[in-house]
Amino acid sequence: MPQDETLEHIAALEEIARTASADALVDLVGDLEKIKGIAYARLASRATAPPPVTDEGDRLLTAEQAAPLLGLTVEQLRRRRNLSFRKTLGRRTLRYSERGIERWLARKNA
Q1: % of the chain exceeding 70 in pLDDT
Q2: Could you list the residue range(s) of the whole structural domain that residue 43 is in?
Q3: What total number of domains does the chain contain?
């Protein structure tokens, strides 16, 4: 849904909240809670989805998956910000390229 259309829908809901009868407000609050639950469920399922594939054969790993490959704790791995295989997917979402880790270990052990 385009952003402008979403804002129009929200403005319409605000107007209903200002002008509706008390009985209609009870129904409105229930409907809004239902919509809020749907949105939270979608956000939660995104957080637990399997790691996305970056290119053929490469997977993006969580810190918990990548740390043992590197012989580090999860905290040690998260503190290392300059790793070439570290990918920032969002404000609070980090992933680590499995292929990048393999290449990094090969160079390190060569």
Answers
A1: 88
A2: 3-47
A3: 2
